[in-house]
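ENTRY TYPE: paired fold submission
RECORD: A
CONTENT: sequence, then structure tokens
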Amino acid sequence: MRPPDPDRAAAAQTFYSRWAGVYDRLARRAPGIRRLRRAAVAALDPAPGDTVVDVGCGTGANLPYLRERVGPEGTVVGVDFAPGAVGRARTLVARAGWTNVSVCRAGATRLPLADADAVLATFLVGMLPDPAAAVEEWLVGLAPSRIALLDLARSHRPPGRPLNPLFGVVVAATAPPGTRDHHDDSPARVLDRRVAAAHRTLLDRCSSTDHETRAGGFAYLSAGGR
């Protein structure tokens, strides 16, 4: 796995912490986002009593849907590297009074857990320098029976393809400062490659898989069982 650049990691943490409030509103209120999150949790299909890890949980937008599926007897663990996002997620948990949901600060490739029944990552792998290796690490290190990924990338379908230039502008505008300086390509193309690599790893490593695109082809949802 490619080692993380400490300076870039620190800059990203600062960026996502500073803008945690904006990302929180987008994560919960963007058009169609709740439907996508519910679809991801449904594809993951955790059972009551399961332990589920939400990698890159951000401000906690997935946590209510995951807890709903595992029930009060299950466990949900959110993990994120940005202090501002973790703080908001913890506030959500405290206000809801969920004793079986916790949020910890850690990197996506340094998860503070030994195992899990299911792993979910939404809108995360495009931020990782080596997303395929990260997915492999989750599968080996946590040995989940189910895993699901939900990500945005450019559309290859006719309904969405004409909007790819606009999507590229949004990706560039929401990326941490200096992102373009570290790549020889546009942020949207880098995102495409990373999302494809992560989802391909999931589909190759799992025995039973499902893959679909939504939102005009911009949303990629893959799930697999082992």
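RECORD: B
CONTENT: sequence, then structure tokens
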Amino acid sequence: MYQLIKRDGLAKRGRLKTVHGVIETPVFMNVGTAAAIKGAVSTEDLQGIKTQVELSNTYHLHVRPGDEVVKKLGGLHKFMVWDKPILTDSGGFQVFSLAGLRKIKEEGVYFHSHIDGKKIFMGPEESMQIQSNLASTIAMAFDECPSSVADRNYIQHSVDRTVRWLERCKKEMARLNSLEDTINKQQMLFGINQGGIYEDIRIEHAKRIAELDLDGYALGGLAVGESHEDMYRIIDATVPYLPQDKPTYLMGVGTPANILEAVDRGVDFFDCVYPSRNGRHGHVYTNHGKMNLFNAKYELDDRPIEEGCQCPACRKYSRAYIRHLLKAKEMLGMRLCVLHNLYFYNNMMEEIRTAIEEGRYKEYKKQKLEGFTRGQI
């Protein structure tokens, strides 16, 4: 159940109650594709860096270790020792990212595994069954994420099929949640809005899926190659047509600046691999912009990554030491950078929630964006 606590312009401060605890929104979901955050980050670590929700990948867990294995071990929460909410994506994004390995039909998608080439079929029912086996808190509907350069005719047909798939997802989830051996009988379902960069297709699709009264709604197919301007234009056009009394999730986005802009447009759920991926390459986020710790100027720098930051890296270690670890290819260097970046994102979301509550979000956003462009110290 979603409760809208406060609005500041279009920015929403909400609360989603789930079977695995309360999610305070806006929220950034920390991405653990294969049931782990890349960079040797444990679930105990996540508890200490303000993580509210962990996100795992349906397709990847289906391929390895297998969703049936996870179910036999008690579901994803038990498997990865995490007692807070988990969102699983549907496998729909892999329809886009594994374009060379798949064939799309009305019944679903035929894949070849990216690991061993084995044939896989996934349709709406299969995606729901896999996610039910994983027993995540929130399951995403199975959709097609069309390429940002796909033509209008293709996108319209794709969106129409995604609506039909969503109806099948809803029906199958209701069936699965009623079964005796289902681990999480209160699993939620979020639908996904598609339509490329065509406003009219997006709006029409939003209206159609809003009628299905789902637990939440996502904007998919953005941050897949289009410009930031196009992304913001589509968010502006589409969000008003999604139910305002349900969570709105912008999938796969993004940079801290992207998040600040999207919150201002009414979005309250986010996920992105940037904090962990960039951290593993020594790129860290700060209130003064992004730093590359491989730079020679940090060789003798005994300051933390960011003064005043309470993450595990900044509380104890210097830029010079972390740079040395990265240069020496010691895993601890990657780990500390990832922990810092995730803490930075999670802490920023906490600041965003407070700013909305206090009715000063526009001022907060302006100050934060100015800081990002100020340059490094």
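NOTES ON RECORD B: The mean pLDDT is 95. Residues 331-357 form the longest helix (27 residues).
STATUS: closed
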